[in-house]
Write a structure and sequence with these properties.
By secondary structure, this protein is of the alpha+beta class. The chain has one domain (5-135). It has four helices and seven strands, in the order ββαββαββααβ. The strands form three sheets. A three-stranded antiparallel β-sheet has the order 5-2-6. The protein has a two-stranded antiparallel sheet with strand order 1-7. It has a two-stranded antiparallel ribbon with strand order 3-4. Strand 3 (45-47) and strand 4 form a beta hairpin. The protein binds zinc ion.
Length: 143
């Protein structure tokens, strides 16, 4: 199958070739986001007369909204972090748009997907922007 997508290593900024790297998100990053999100909601919750609670936010509250857990990509040789609990996708299993749709369908079964930056990652890929998942037709300006 012809490669339609490149996964760009966050460390060296070069495409990850077949079987030499992963796209991954860590459980510690997920847990940190979920804790920060819960604290943010608590800070911004207002109790209405009658006891109902609503989250009320203004522009300043949106600025300090916690950042979702980040999907990262590394060649095996560039992977400097020791993180034992990760969800990872081997680069050779994400080469085409069909692969990306299939992985997205699979990940949508995970209750934590919305706590990651998968949606903006897809959005950037479909717009052909430089980033972590890039159409193979887009020159790698970082290399
Ligand atoms: Zn690398």
């Amino acid at each position: 199958m012809t490669r339609e997508l490149n996964i760009i290593c966050n460390a060296c900024k070069k495409p990850i070739d077949d079987q030499t790297g992963t796209l991954w998100v860590s459980n510690p990053d997920l847990n940190n986001y979920q804790d920060a999100q819960a604290a943010w909601e608590t800070r911004n919750t207002m109790t209405l007369p009658g006891g109902a609670e609503i989250v009320v936010v203004n522009a300043a509250d949106l600025i300090d909204h916690p950042r979702r857990a980040q999907w990262r990509a590394h060649h095996d040789a560039c992977h400097g972090e020791t993180v034992t609990t990760v969800y990872e996708i081997q680069a050779h299993r994400l080469k085409t748009w069909a692969d990306l749709v299939s992985w997205t369908a699979h990940l949508m079964e995970k209750d934590w997907l919305g706590d990651t930056d998968w949606a903006p990652l897809l959005d950037a890929a479909t717009r052909g922007e430089s980033g972590t998942i890039v159409p193979a037709s887009v020159p790698n300006l970082n290399a």
